Structure to design on (375 residues):
């Protein structure tokens, strides 16, 4: 542990930003600092967080699963950066989205909207049906704007794994790296929910978002068809509604893991440590593909050179990272060979609105770098 970093995160727990935090900071492939603070579960009972606590990684699934698998397929020649959706998948033929490329999807420059509640719009949860709905979306600002979108990575997953990334991830990543506490649908993989950090009570956030964006009338659910929104404690199952709708595994969300196993996956993006990719492939993750646009984006990641990124003020501009809605984050500095993992469960035991913890992430990274530099 590190007293300054742990003390800061404990302050944020005491301020009710989140009930728990587990962090890991590594340099040159070795763990330097790590600690677990607070409670992974507050209700219906109290369970302290440990270094082995499993968290819902939310959108960290995008780079850690879909991004990694896509890069591997590019490396093996199955697809390329300029491969179009219609080149490899019949679902997208004849649509506006048919000509979207892998590069546009991984850099969020496709013009697809940020989000759609497929659990309200789809006839079923099949990749074909979800793909059809994505293909129907109007593209806005394609190539000229960065619009962060779940749909980009759902489409990528349909392209590379027919919408089910969990099987290939288990075979080619988890098995190869010896990951023992990382999985989609952790309960079905034999984990007890007492090992897992709890999330929101019900789907209040997503339900309100559906109302605010006009996908759901405020009075919906009073009689008639069953509500698609959960009202139980979301604990051991994915928080994201679209990932839950597609049986817990999707290209944009669904992976659960610990801080140490996130670190093991993160090493695969660094040329000096990767066991899954060629060194030259790792250059994709630090390359700025969106120069001059609103964000600097590499292959599946945001770059620290982006204004107001959560990397903080001290990380090298080529550093790349990602946040997860549930309160998770990962940043990787390829220049200084450093990895920063912060896992929280900010959606648990907290009324709406949830706390925006981006300032916490920035301060965490700045403190971590100060402590590493001072060693």
């Amino acid at each position: 542990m590190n007293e300054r970093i742990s003390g800061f995160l404990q302050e944020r727990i005491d301020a009710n930003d989140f009930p728990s935090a587990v962090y890991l900071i590594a340099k040159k492939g070795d763990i330097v600092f790590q600690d677990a603070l607070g409670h992974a579960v507050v209700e219906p009972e109290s369970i302290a967080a440990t270094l082995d606590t499993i968290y819902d990684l939310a959108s960290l699934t995008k780079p850690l699963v879909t991004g990694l698998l896509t890069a591997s397929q590019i490396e093996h020649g199955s697809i390329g950066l300029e491969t179009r959706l219609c080149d490899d998948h019949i679902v997208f033929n004849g649509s506006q989205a048919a000509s979207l490329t892998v590069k546009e999807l991984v850099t969020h420059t496709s013009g697809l909207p940020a989000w759609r509640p497929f659990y309200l719009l789809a006839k079923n949860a099949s990749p074909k049906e979800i793909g059809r709905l994505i293909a129907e979306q109007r593209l806005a600002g394609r190539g000229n704007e960065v619009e962060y979108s779940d749909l980009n990575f759902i489409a990528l997953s349909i392209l590379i794994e027919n919408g089910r990334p969990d099987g290939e991830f288990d075979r080619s990543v988890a098995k190869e790296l010896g990951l023992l506490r990382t999985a989609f649908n952790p309960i079905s993989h034999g984990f007890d929910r007492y090992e897992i950090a709890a999330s929101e009570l019900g789907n209040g956030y997503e339900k309100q978002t559906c109302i605010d964006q006009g996908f759901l009338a405020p009075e919906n659910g009073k009689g008639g068809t069953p509500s698609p929104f959960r009202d139980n404690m979301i604990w051991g199952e994915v928080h994201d509604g679209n990932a839950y709708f597609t049986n817990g595994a999707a290209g944009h969300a669904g992976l659960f893991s610990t801080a140490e196993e996130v670190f093991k996956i993160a090493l695969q993006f660094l040329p000096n440590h990767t066991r899954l990719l060629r060194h030259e492939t790792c250059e994709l993750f630090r390359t700025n593909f969106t120069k001059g646009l609103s964000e600097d984006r590499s292959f599946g990641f945001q770059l620290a050179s982006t204004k107001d990124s959560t990397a903080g003020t001290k990380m090298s501009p080529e550093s790349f990272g990602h946040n997860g809605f549930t309160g998770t984050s990962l940043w990787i500095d390829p220049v200084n060979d450093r990895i920063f993992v912060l896992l929280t469960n900010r959606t648990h035991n907290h009324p709406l609105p949830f706390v925006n913890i981006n300032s916490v992430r920035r301060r965490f990274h700045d403190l971590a770098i100060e402590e590493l530099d001072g060693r």
Residues 3-65+169-373 form a domain with the Beta-lactamase fold (CATH 3.40.710.10). The longest helix spans residues 358-373. The beta strands are 20-27, 30-41, 47-48, 55-56, 183-184, 255-257, 302-303, 320-324, 328-333, 338-344.
